[in-house]
Design a protein that fits this description.
Helices cover 74% and strands 1% of the residues. The protein has eleven helices and two strands. Helix 2 (8-45) packs across helix 9 and helix 2 packs antiparallel against helix 10 (276-304). Pfam families: Aa_trans. The chain crosses the membrane at residues 12-33, 53-70, 82-102, 122-141, 162-182, 202-228, 256-276, 282-304, 311-335.
Length: 351
């Protein structure tokens, strides 16, 4: 769309790189979160185990290394279906466990005050906005898919409604119940709050912790492979020989090397910088805010050319300007938080 509406350079040098950065950033974030879940499973079995977080990130990267060899989106259709089921399962499990813990007599003390100095609070607001943009950014996927066949408007609305229904059933339930149960101590990975820090015992049965983390690991591996696929398609359009068959040696070897290289790089970055929330906020600021909130209204104004005196022109312009400013501020906030955490933790930190 950027290529046809704004010109080839906008598509190639602005929108394309942002899309690829977002896709690769999601792979890195998922590799990190997958490693954290594997570590949680390990600690259930070996409470005094000495393995570090980066080792589990590498193990998760090995799983991605295998799944990344699926040749196309079509070959991922069963993985996508399983991913949706797992998403609903672990979200329901996390919400139910938070409610259960919150009602227990020995429940952790709830504190809903906003901590930190004024500067930290202000930057925290913009950080949170970027994370929310990352969460809602997935809504653009079914909306785009709905444009494949007519009637476009009706199907786009259905796609969005379906997406937000899933968001409410998953993100919202976990966020609300988790914050209610743990207050400002709620972590980015809510399962880590299920461990009582004082007694070093879980508030829920250990088999439950193991199971929900297993659900999460499997779902994250599916999501990471889906977001890796657009990068694979672009690279393979350059390195593959279209005159040869898909599974010929000429095409299989370059595909294996390139896909493996990108998974290894993502795994190394995830192991080096284990700050999941920071990665999410940077993704939202740099990628999802411009792609979801700025470019669509710009495209509308350039394509349909509404009168400069019309309401639709000015509301689109205001949205583009406000979210552009928000994206810049949120990016500064995200980078600031990464620097703070990098000073707090060393590379390959066991957090």
């Amino acid at each position: 769309m950027a290529h046809h509406i704004l010109g080839p350079k906008w598509g190639r040098y602005y929108v394309g790189p942002i899309q690829m950065a977002v896709c690769y950033g999601v792979v890195i974030a998922n590799a990190l979160l997958g490693g954290q879940c594997l570590k949680a499973m390990y600690l259930v079995v070996q409470p005094n185990g000495e393995m570090k977080l980066f080792e589990f990130v590498i193990i998760f990267g090995c799983l991605l290394l295998v799944l990344a060899q699926f040749p196309s989106f079509h070959s991922l259709r069963y993985i996508n279906s399983l991913s949706l089921l797992l998403c609903l399962l672990y979200s329901a499990s996390a919400a139910a466990a938070s409610i259960y813990i919150g009602k227990e007599p020995n429940a952790p003390e709830k504190d809903y005050t906003i901590v930190g100095d004024p500067e930290t609070r202000v930057f925290g607001i913009f950080n949170a906005m970027a994370i929310i943009a990352t969460t809602y950014g997935n809504g653009i996927i079914p909306e785009i898919q709905a444009t494949i066949s007519a009637p476009v408007k009706g199907k786009m609305m259905k796609g969005l409604c379906m997406c937000y229904l899933v968001v409410i059933m998953t993100f919202f339930t976990v966020a609300i119940t988790g914050y209610w149960a743990f207050g400002n101590k709620a972590n980015g990975l809510i399962f880590t709050n299920f461990l009582n820090a004082e007694t070093n015992h879980y508030f829920v049965p250990t088999w439950f912790i193991f199971l929900v983390n297993l659900f999460t690991v499997l779902q994250l591996s599916a999501v990471a492979v889906v977001y890796l696929q657009p990068i694979n398609d672009i690279l393979e359009s350059v390195i593959s020989d279209p005159t040869k068959k898909e599974f010929s040696i000429r095409n299989v070897i370059p595909r294996l090397v390139v896909r493996s290289l990108f998974v290894v790089m993502a795994t190394i970055v995830a192991a080096m910088l284990p700050f999941f929330g920071d990665v999410n906020s940077l993704l939202g600021a740099f990628g999802f805010i411009p792609l979801d909130f700025v470019l669509p209204v710009v495209f509308f104004n350039f394509t349909f050319k509404p009168s400069k005196k019309s309401f639709i022109f000015w509301i689109n312009t205001v949205i583009a300007v406000v979210f552009s400013c928000l994206g810049v501020i949120a990016m500064v906030a995200a980078v600031r938080q990464i620097i703070i955490d990098a000073n707090t933790y060393k590379l390959f930190a066991d957090v």
